[in-house]
Amino acid sequence: MVGNLKNKTRVVITGIGTVNSIGLNAREFWDNLLAGKSGISVIEGFDVEKINSKIAGQIKNFDPQNYINIKEAKRMDRFAQFAVAAALMALEDSKLKINELNCNDIGVFIGSGVGGLSTIEVQNQRLLEKGADKVSPFLVPMMICNMAAAQVSIISGAKGPVSTTTTACAAGTNAIGDAFEIIKRGAANVMIAGGAEAAITPLGMAGFSSMHAMSTRNDDPQKASRPFERDRDGFVMGEGSGILILEELNHAVKRGADIYAEIIGYGLSGEAFHITALEESGVNVVRCMENCLSEAEVEKEEVDYINAHGTSTPLNDLVETNAIKKCFGSHAYKLNVSSTKSMHGHCLGAAGGVESVATVLAIKNGRIPPTINYFNADKNCDLNYTPNVSVNKKIRVALKNSMGFGGHNVTLAYKRFDN
Predict the structure, then answer these.
(1) Looking at 251, 309, 344, 408, which residue is catalytic?
(2) What span, in angstroms and rounded, lies between the C-alpha atoms of 245 and 108?
(3) What is the pTM of this model?
(4) CA angle 328, 332, 333 (to 5 degrees)
């Protein structure tokens, strides 16, 4: 029996939406995940000659006018456009209609680690070349991180709690967890939650590249992201948005909503160690997962799948592996673990949103997406990373891990929905 869920406010997922390098919608995303398709390619659109890493998970053929009129689109940075697109798809999927009767009880919580980076770059160049009077009056409302949530609220009409997390690569996961807590405390019936990011820009790529954090396997882009694999050499930047519709169970049942899964736990911990690196023992990540499992009230043996942070950097993957082993003991070797970043890249603040969509679909469909590009085992990373090929597995409980620069650790627990 999974957890003691009687007399609790229960929160379920009734809609999903995403746009990323392997899918312009959730169906395409899921099909490509199961097929092990890579969305990584050589960067187009700007000069990468002096940037060491020249590859990324770019979204191609995205037209914001499919979701937003041209006037509104021009006043949004790309990250906010992604958020609006994913949110509108999620709302449509949930069959939830926002109107004057329910709008105050529906909120938005969307995380972003970087925000409107392309807007900052373009307007700074205009400042330098043409002067201060030529800087766009929309600079500030386009660049600030809260504008993904704000624009989704404005366009959808949701007037409940509207907020943003900026906890680096954990931002999207934090946003979903915080939205979960808002519903549990009765401040909203429904939350539109996830992450959005669009940092594949000259400055974004140059900054991460100068940290030596990204893969330089430029001659073989589709095989560059190799989470947990022996020859991994850094992450590959991705972009996009992943949005879930979180809903109080009775509210969802009353309106006859289809339910993908239930969210049952939210764990947090801090590293208090370094601005970019995890403490190598993994004890803080262990605490995060254990805090999540404690709130979820599930036994460790009930967890069947972990959608890992799995960035493809040497340190992160080792620390996360060690943390899973310390947390789960012998059960760690019975788990399926996978990192879908191997296909769509690391979407930074959007990662938790995009990867939560993958996790929820894995539970709903009883299918675990693979970690592709797993060619050579690392003797220190010795778990079942679901290498290269998806597998059928009935999932009772799945965890979603995220870690962000500055020491932000986040874990969400999702479970198969049972009445």
Answers:
(1) 309
(2) 9
(3) 0.97
(4) 155
Judge whether 309 counts as a catalytic residue.
yes
For residue 69, the domain's CATH number is: 3.40.47.10
Helices and strands (H and E) in the chain: how many:
13, 14
Going 198 to 66 to 48 to 22, the CA torsion angle's sign is positive
Residue whose entry in the numeric block shows the structure tokens 């201060």 = 132
Give per-residue burial for 11-24: e unless 16+ CB within 10 Å, then b.
bbbbbbbbbbbbbb
Catalytic residue among 145, 251, 288, 346: 346
The single residue listed with the structure tokens 């262990």 is 286
pLDDT in tens, the chain (419 residues): 344 445 689 999 999 999 999 999 999 999 999 999 999 999 999 999 999 999 999 999 999 999 999 999 999 999 999 999 999 999 999 999 999 999 999 999 999 999 999 999 999 999 999 999 999 999 999 999 999 999 999 999 999 999 999 999 999 999 999 999 999 999 999 999 999 999 999 999 999 999 999 999 999 999 999 999 999 999 999 999 999 999 999 999 999 999 999 999 999 999 999 999 999 999 999 999 999 999 999 999 999 999 999 999 999 999 999 999 999 999 999 999 999 999 999 999 999 999 999 999 999 999 999 999 999 999 999 999 999 999 999 999 999 999 999 999 999 999 999 87
Residue 169 is a catalytic residue: yes
Place of tokens 């001659």: 219
Closest CA to 321 of 332, 305, 334: 332
Catalytic residue among 145, 169, 292, 327: 169
Could you give the C-alpha distances from 128 to 121, 134, 240, 289, in angstroms and in order?
A: 11, 10, 29, 47
Query: How many Cα atoms sit within 13 Å of 397 on the Cβ side?
Result: 21
Number of domains observed in the structure of the chain: 1
- Is 327 noted as a catalytic residue in this protein? no
- The domain in which residue 27 lies consists of 1-419
Query: Phi and psi of 66, rounded to 5°?
Result: -70, -15
